Amino acid sequence: MRVAIAGAGAVGRSIAGELLENGHEVLLIDKAPTAISVERVPMAEWLLADACEITSLDEAALQRCNVVIAATGDDKVNLVVSLLAKTEYGVPRVVARVNNPKNEWLFNESWGVDVAVSTPRLMSALVEEAVSVGDLVRLLRFSHGDANLVELTLPEESALAGTQVGDVEWPEDTSLVTIIRGTRVLTPSGEDSLEAGDELLFVAAQAREEQLEDLLSARKGSTAR
Fold first, then answer.
1. Please, what is the Cα angle at 204 between 220 and 107, to 5 degrees?
2. What is the tens place of the pLDDT at every residue in 106-149?
3. Exposure on the CB side of residue 223, measured as CA atoms within 13 A
4. What would you report as the CA-atom Rg of the chain, rounded to the nearest whole angstrom?
């Protein structure tokens, strides 16, 4: 997979290093000469250019990329890069960094963003996830389809504890993708039983989140759905 990263700061270089270790091709783009530190990520391709300029993206051959990551520290730049990548070059997957949470509402498919990653929101979500049992925590927002990656730790008193996955009437537009049980990561099947303390990860439409939380948190003997 070929990935172009706009922004060769600490965030961009860190992402590049991870992707290279996983066998992907990576191109780092930055307009600041001081950011071009080839020795820090020697396996990557480097381009000194303004990622907001069409001529620069032509030089980067963005049409050959499977993924573009807008990882600069400027939200305006990240939005422009995302829009150009999607509309001008047809890049299949565009991921954008959100620096200011107040701008998060802009990072959607209208600006070419498939996945928006807000570091402040993600950090707060991880804190919530670590201390919350029975509360739905939003970990990541997907622009297409208005879906989110959400997590809930099944409480001891949940009516679903001991129930097989296939017997649960899940809300529409939700999908259970992973069960984390202790140190194990389980791909759920219909025969798997839910246990108290399980961390359940769902992809769910935002409109269904409250319904999903009510279902998972309903106490034994409750009729809530």
1. 145
2. 999 999 999 888 765 554 544 444 445 667 777 777 755 578 88
3. 0
4. 20
pLDDT tens string 174-205: 999 999 898 888 899 999 999 998 989 999 99
Residue 36 tokens read as 């071009």
In order of 60, 75, 82, 84, 190, the CA distances from 56 in angstroms are: 6, 19, 14, 11, 50
Q: What share of the chain is helix, strand, coil (3-state, %, to 5)?
A: 35, 30, 35
Is residue 156 within 8 Å of residue 197, measured between CB atoms? yes
CA–CA separation, 115 vs 30, rounded Å? 21
Which residue, among 117, 147, 162, has the nearest Cα to 212 in the 3D structure? 147
Please report where in the chains the tokens 């919350």 appear, as a residue.
132
Nearest Cα to 200, choosing from 215, 189, 216, 214?
216
